[in-house]
Amino acid sequence: MKSCILLAGLNTEGTTTVTEPFISRNHTEILLKHMGAKISTKGTTVSIEKSELQPVEINIFGDISSAAYFIVAGLIVPNSEIILKNVGLNPTRTGILEVVKKMGGNIEILDEHETCGELVGDIKVKYSPELKGCEISGEIIPKLIDEIPIIAVLATQAEGQTTISDAQDLRNKESDRITAVVTELKKLGADIEEKPDGMIICGKTDLLGDCEIETYHDHRLAMSLYVAGLICKKEIAINGFEWVNISFPEFEKMFEELKNN
After folding, report:
1. DSSP code at position 7
2. Which of 60, 124, 190, 252 has the fewest CB atoms within 10 Å, counting from its CB?
3. Catalytic residue among 122, 146, 169, 218
4. Are residues 149 and 99 in the same domain?
């Protein structure tokens, strides 16, 4: 919605202003500024004036929401070490990196630089058998809202309790992601409980597998369950796995290439 208003403001006389309760993704603001728009940000308020955009050369970098599945796989699959090249590190999107560090995960950012006004770098992760549970709530939630399903998988492999709160928006995604994540991870043997605005996961838990699980037509749930399947004791069958094609059609192929290496 913010992006729609800002784009409309490009062709509107005067100043158009948007104020949010929390800082949210700002890719639109960065790109518009890079293209010459008269746009300014102060705290959670963004203002834009009527502007004529200029053509620019844009370098497309990797999406951290897609990288998240490889990050978690690298942390929980024994003997793993993965380097993800040229990933966007916009501070409004890197909540998962903050959580991994808070849990004690072995993660490192390499070759950090800017492209088209966006922060970009390589992410290196290694198997981390001594992860610790943590609290995830408040202002960090908009920075990782799409990564909560895969963070829940990560939390099953962390000692102690991980509590996710203030994430009620998950109920209005492609599926009710709170109920869906809790239901399907329970099938795998996770100690996980649903809350109105999130979930509580207690670890460390062996995921058993040997069952059929559902994706609820949700690409992010499908990819998260695939990663969970990598550490299950027995195979799982993911019904509706084809929904990954919505955002990441090369997902399974890339994981298969990793396994072969």
Report:
1. H
2. 60
3. 146
4. yes
- The H or E element spanning position 6 is helix 2-9
CATH number, domain of 97, equals 3.65.10.10
The range of the structural domain enclosing residue 13 comes to: 2-49
Residue 174's pLDDT band, with cuts at 50, 70 and 90, is confident
pLDDT for 115-168, tens place per residue? 988 999 999 999 999 999 999 999 999 999 999 999 999 999 999 999 999 999
CA 15-16-20 angle, to 5 degrees, is 135
Residue 100 one-letter amino acid: V
Residues 245 and 121 placed together within one structural domain of the fold: yes
Backbone angles phi, psi at 100, to 5 degrees: -60, -45
- pLDDT tens-digit map of 45-86: 999 999 999 999 888 999 999 999 999 999 999 999 999 999
Known catalytic residue at 146: yes
How many domains is the chain partitioned into structurally? 2
pLDDT for res 172 = 85
197 occurs within a structural domain: yes
- Flag whether 87 is in a domain: yes
C-alpha 180/C-alpha 183 separation (Å) is 5
Q: Are residues 114 and 227 in the same domain?
A: yes
Residues 76 and 7 in one domain: no
Cβ-proximal residues to 159 (8 Å cutoff; 6+ apart), any chain: 130, 131, 132, 133, 203, 204
| Residue 56 forms part of a structural domain | no
Q: Let me know the angle formed at the C-alpha of 188 by 141 and 70, rounded to the nearest 5 degrees.
A: 50
